[in-house]
Specification:
With about 675 residues, the protein is an alpha+beta fold. The protein is about 25% helix and about 20% strand. Helix 5 packs antiparallel against helix 9 and helix 7 crosses helix 8. The longest helix has 21 residues.
Length: about 675
């Protein structure tokens, strides 16, 4: 099965073009120069940019590791590119010693010749027991469903996988599968996995070239507040990793990496082993201490000490005191540790009081296909208390968007309309990168039939765009008065057309409105009618930002029980819309928001939001779009397809905005200075 990269449509393997949108299924586009290149190309022939899907492969024998245990000299393994493979061993019943010859670059990891080796491999018989071997591979068939996806789908449906015979999901892969909804916190996503006899293979996102946390630690420009932020991220990861017994992943210093936004990420997972530890990368004298110590938060203090020691960086007072209290056992719970880190962050920011703790559970984006570790079947939820949120000054690092409208399955014309305008100013220096951005996002759902609804919705978008071109010239968001005036002018533009055409009663055209303006990390929202704005964040999950302007909601605001309010025959009738009445009767709701964490904003017409569709399916269709690796265009198309499948009675429109942020290091440093 070939999955179209543009619209996510499933195509037969013989297709050369997507039968839904016409996109090529035999070539891909270089992200740098937009030249078409072969699917199995690692680099673009035109500009030389890397455009292939490079993965990190881990292979071991069943029973030696779960997701990584005592690997001995791990640095030697990781740097020597040693591995074990054969283009045919996965379909063979022969032992490892049956393949004495080394394998060269260009050989394949699997008999289907999908995963091509990018590094040479030793002979299989030379691989020692009780070790893992790792290598980089190229996915030569990136549009194919992976074997893991097939096995998970069949397992969900209670089916066998006859096409792969004895293949099964290896235990090495299970922690990654169980934590696939936590990739936004730095968990590496799993790409594929399989097992044949005693050989386990797992393919992950390749993070071998990502910057190590220890390298950033050594830089003089790394502020104390940024260090506290990394500590806090470790406590968040600790809570997640505890659910699959992979907390050891945090004390392998070489495993602590940084993504492009300088957020903490793990290269891979290591499973905890009773009585054993692999702390060679911390220090030789620390290893026996960790082996004897149970998995408590005290270990984090020792990891932090190792980071300071190996970076030769001086520990500052508050952190030195905190690590000392950890060592003495005065801090016993994760929540207490996070609260102390918040207080230190507040102190570094110059606040007189500590930052209040916001109690919130991280969301889970787990799909119905979630595989738990065998020994953890009854321990799938976070066992810690609610996780607090660390408040730090933030800066915008990326602002992306995508929009799409569809007529639906029952209408013969589309009365929805949307507009997107994004302006980005990006400055990159050797030691700094800043981004200033503003965006105007408008979605309108028109009413009034042919030459009515579509005219009103398009007119509203055009009026609002014109207004802000002349009234939004500074680097600050427009004021609330400016927002209301813009909406009133849009309303008047439609109202005037109604008057000129002598439209009356139900013949008067109109439209709903949902509008979002973003200036860096500041947001203002205005809406009229029942088109909605949703927000998805890692900590708060899905939130509906707007409240529909309809009779049912009006009655609820007056104290009527929801069941009674929506039993009225006119419950879904709009109480406000642009166009039917003059500007004096339009009172838009206006809200100001801050982006304090990675956020996904979704503007939705009622064709998408009806029947609680997004509330039911947000974990599978919205939460994954928080990841910078997720394609927004593909995600929006999937939303349209979802609405057509479950609703389809109305026009469907979605505008998705992804804003990613990180701590504002310049602001932090100026505070410290």
């Amino acid at each position: 099965m070939l999955i179209c990269p543009q619209c996510n449509f499933e195509n037969p393997n013989t297709n050369k073009f997507c039968q839904n949108c016409g996109a090529s299924l035999t070539q891909k586009v270089c992200p740098e120069c937009s030249t078409y290149v072969a699917l199995n190309a690692q680099r673009c022939d035109n500009c030389g940019a890397e455009c292939g899907t490079v993965l990190w492969a881990i292979i071991t024998q069943e029973g030696t590791f779960a997701a990584g245990e005592n690997r001995g000299d791990r640095e030697a393994i990781f740097s020597s590119s040693s591995f074990l493979s054969s283009s045919s061993f996965l379909s063979s019943s022969s032992s490892l010693s049956s393949f004495p010859s080394p394998l060269s670059v260009g050989s394949y990891l699997d008999p289907q010749k999908r995963y091509q080796l990018l590094e040479p491999l030793p002979a299989l018989g030379e691989i020692a027991t009780n070790t893992e071997v790792c290598v980089r591979v190229l996915d030569c068939q990136p549009y194919q469903l992976s074997l893991l996806e097939v096995m998970l789908a069949n397992e969900q449906q209670g089916l066998a996988t006859p096409s792969v015979g004895e293949q099964k999901i290896p235990s090495l892969a299970k922690p990654y599968i169980a934590l696939q909804s936590w990739c936004h916190l730095g968990i590496p996503p799993i790409h594929d996995a399989w097992q044949h006899e005693n050989i386990q293979v797992v393919l992950l996102e390749d993070r071998s070239n990502w910057q190590k946390l220890l390298e950033l630690w050594r830089e003089d420009t790394t502020s104390s507040l940024q260090i506290v932020h990394f500590f806090y991220q470790m406590t968040q990861l600790w809570a997640v990793l505890e659910t699959v017994k992979c907390r050891q992943s945090l004390w392998e210093l070489g495993n602590l990496r940084l993504d492009e936004d300088l957020s903490l990420a793990l290269q891979r997972l290591y499973v905890e082993l009773p009585g054993k530890s692999s702390a060679a990368e911390l220090s030789e004298d620390l290893e026996p201490q960790l082996e004897a110590q149970p998995f408590t938060v005290q270990i984090l203090g020792r990891v932090w000490q190792a980071l300071f020691r190996q970076s030769q960086r001086t520990q500052f007072g508050s952190i030195l005191h905190l690590i000392g209290e950890l060592e003495l056992g005065k801090i016993q719970t994760l929540v207490e540790l996070q609260s102390r880190l918040e207080a230190i962050a507040s102190e570094l920011q110059g606040n007189s009081t500590s930052v209040p703790i916001t109690r919130t559970m991280p969301y889970s984006t787990a799909t119905p296909t979630v595989l738990q570790l065998d020994e953890q079947e009854d321990d799938t939820e976070l066992k810690t208390d609610d996780m607090p949120t660390l408040v730090l000054p933030m800066q915008l690092v990326s602002l992306e968007n995508a929009g799409l409208t569809d007529v639906g399955r029952q209408r013969d014309h589309n009365e929805d309309y949307f507009g997107i305008e994004t302006k980005i100013h990006k400055l990159e220096l050797p030691n700094n990168r800043t981004l200033q951005a503003r965006g105007l996002y408008v979605l309108c759902d028109g009413m009034g039939g042919h030459a009515g609804g579509e005219v009103a919705s398009a007119l509203a978008v055009s009026s609002l765009r014109q207004y802000f071109q002349t009234h939004w010239t500074s680097d600050q968001l427009p004021t609330e008065d400016d927002i209301r005036e813009a909406v009133r002018q849009a309303n008047q533009a439609i109202f005037d057309v109604n008057q000129q055409d002598s439209r009356s009663g139900v013949g008067r055209m109109g439209t709903t409105l949902i509008m979002v303006l973003i200036q860096d990390t500041h947001v203002v929202v205005a809406h009229v009618g029942d088109s909605r704005l949703y927000r998805v964040t890692p900590k708060r999950g899905l939130e509906q930002i707007t409240v529909d302007h309809e009779v049912g909601q009006r009655e609820i605001s007056r104290g009527v029980e929801p069941s009674v309010a929506y039993s009225r025959p006119d419950a879904y009738q709009l109480t406000q819309a642009l166009g039917p009445r003059d500007e004096h009767l339009i009172i838009p709701d206006v809200q100001f928001l801050e982006i304090n964490e990675d956020s996904l904003f979704v503007l939705a017409s009622d064709g998408l939001s009806d029947n609680d569709l997004l509330k039911i399916h947000w974990q599978t269709h919205l939460a994954p779009l928080l990841s910078s690796s997720a394609n927004l265009e593909t995600g929006v198309q999937a939303l349209i397809d979802l609405a057509n499948h479950y609703n389809g009675h109305d026009n469907i429109t979605a505008v998705v905005i992804r804003a990613r942020v990180r701590p504002n290091l310049e602001q932090q440093q100026s505070i410290l200075d």
